Amino acid sequence: MPRPVLADAVDLARAAVVELREGRVGDYLGVTSEDDFAATHRFAADIAGYRGWQWAVVVAAGPDDERATVSELALLPGPDALVAPQWLPWDQRIRPGDLSPGDLLAPTAEDPRLVPGYVATGDPEVDDVAVTIGLGRKNVMSLEGRLDAASRWFEGEFGPESEMAKAAPSTCGLCGFFLPLAGSLQAGFGVCGNELAADGRVVSVSYGCGAHSDTTLPVGAGSPQFDAFDDGAVELTARATSSVGVGDSASTE
Ligand code: SF4
To answer: What dihedral do alpha carbons 33, 36, 38, 43 form, nearest 10°?
Structure first.
């Protein structure tokens, strides 16, 4: 609890804010002690665009002082204040799908997804093979980068836990439209080459869909899930007769 000379300086603190002329000073919100010689009085701030903010007025008094003086004054966010999100460097704000034609997005200097590759030799035969296995490129994906990608693909739309995969008759790994990746991800992933399915997308070997190359149509006609409805058959039902008055004509249909 602040010393009385500090705690009682509410009017002094309010007057300091009023003198600023930065908007109406709202309700008194209380006082907190900073140390033996300073305390902070808070008032609700009634300023457009600053919902939940508070005026904080620090008053100070020496050990033998009978009156406090205003030390500093600030507009601060309260617990429910509307505040701007924490600032993020631009390269951390980019999200998948943000890249547009013409945009340049260089990897950071220490991008953990990349490790140095090896420079080209100049021999076309050697370089053809080298490029295929990752040599000849300045950077190649690091183990961390490949594991991250594999996790995203496995847990994503074309992984084994998707609704499509759960309802599929078989898996991509056994499908004729499956084009395996090269390199260390070959065992787990490939690209779908079926234009009526996940065409051009990386799919897990455990994913699958109804357009699997081994899919066979059910024998017979009609839907495999529902009995056929014969709309050529006519069902005759008796029609309820209604009572009619004298002189009315009754239907005989
Ligand atoms: S057609 Fe279906 S099962 Fe075959 S590779 Fe493409 S997504 Fe996989």
So the answer is: 20
